[in-house]
Design a protein that fits this description.
The protein is globular, with a radius of gyration of 19 Å. With about 300 residues, it is α/β, with parallel strands linked by helices. The mean pLDDT is about 95.
């Protein structure tokens, strides 16, 4: 049996099951201070019975270097109390099992690559547009890590001609992509969710344009085949179509990948993150000599 946690900024999805596609039980808790949140998560998972490994797909930044003394710790984050907290180590000690860890977007990207919109492709990027913006990249089945994990939400897009006055809400960069186009930025500017604004509101073109710039950058820099957009903002009717048309206009038929580049919604829907976390648990289990039972 495997355990999984999709740790988000506002909620944590918990699950247990025998494989990524065989979830036996799930539960959702609010993300509060780390002590309360992690204790509640560990208590629920422990109450489901013995597990052999745990997978965590966490909001970032998080230290993913297994050689680092702070592996599994949350990095510098605006979430009060979470900076420097030992996320993976807490569950290793509390549950006594191996822990597989990656970012929430890399977890969702793994799930979509193997079980969703990326099947048959060699590369996939998963971008979540919610309270914040983050992105994960999978090439040949493996998440891309370098000095750390990608932070796609913190690139600086070209400002739209009719959007020069808003300073942005990112506490570190101001008008980076997250500062301009995240759910929190949209609410700060216009006082409503993007999906609640009239379809002819200027916000739809502004946000679609910024996300199209990100998409074009991903295609141009990584030659990635598929970009999947998840998260609450990405569910806004018509937004993915705006991103497609905006990215095509930016490309101007230049990129050699041509029609091999695709923009899609998550085939797994809201399950992408927790399925990815379960895949991280599978890897942790197999690395420790436990073979998950995929059939039951």
């Amino acid at each position: 049996m495997l355990g999984a946690i999709e740790a988000g900024g506002t909620k944590c999805v918990l699950a247990v099951g025998s494989a990524a596609g065989v979830i036996k039980a799930r539960h959702v808790i609010a993300t509060r201070d780390p002590q309360t949140t992690l204790a509640e998560a560990a208590a629920w998972i422990g109450a489901q019975g013995h597990i052999d490994a745990l997978g965590i797909a966490s909001f970032g930044p998080v230290d993913l270097d297994p050689q680092s003394a702070t592996w599994g710790h949350i990095g510098k984050t605006p979430k009060p109390g979470w900076t420097g907290h030992d996320l993976a180590g807490y569950f290793q000690r509390r549950l006594g099992v191996p822990v597989g860890l990656d970012t929430d977007v890399n977890g969702a990207a793994l799930a979509e690559y193997h079980h969703g919109s990326g099947r048959g492709a060699r590369s996939l990027a998963y971008v979540t547009v919610g309270t914040g913006i983050g992105g994960g990249l999978i090439i040949d089945g493996q998440p891309v890590h370098g000095a750390a994990h990608p932070e796609m939400g913190h690139i600086f897009p070209r400002r739209a001609a009719d959007d020069q006055d808003f300073a942005g809400i990112c506490p570190y960069h101001g008008d980076c992509l997250e500062g301009l186009a995240s759910g929190l930025a949209i609410m700060t500017r216009w006082g409503k969710l993007l999906s609640d604004l009239p379809t002819d509101h200027v916000a739809h073109d502004i946000i679609g344009g910024y996300l199209a710039q990100l998409t074009h950058a991903i295609f141009a820099m990584t030659a990635c085949e598929t970009v999947v957009f998840g998260g609450g903002v990405a569910k806004t009717p018509g937004l993915i179509d705006r991103i497609r048309s905006g990215a095509a206009a930016l490309d101007a038929s230049y990129l050699p990948g041509g029609d091999r580049h695709h923009i899609a919604a998550p085939a797994l829907g809201d399950d992408a993150g927790i399925v990815g976390a379960m895949m991280l648990a599978e890897h942790a289990a197999s690395s420790s000599g436990v073979t998950p039972d995929r059939g039951h």
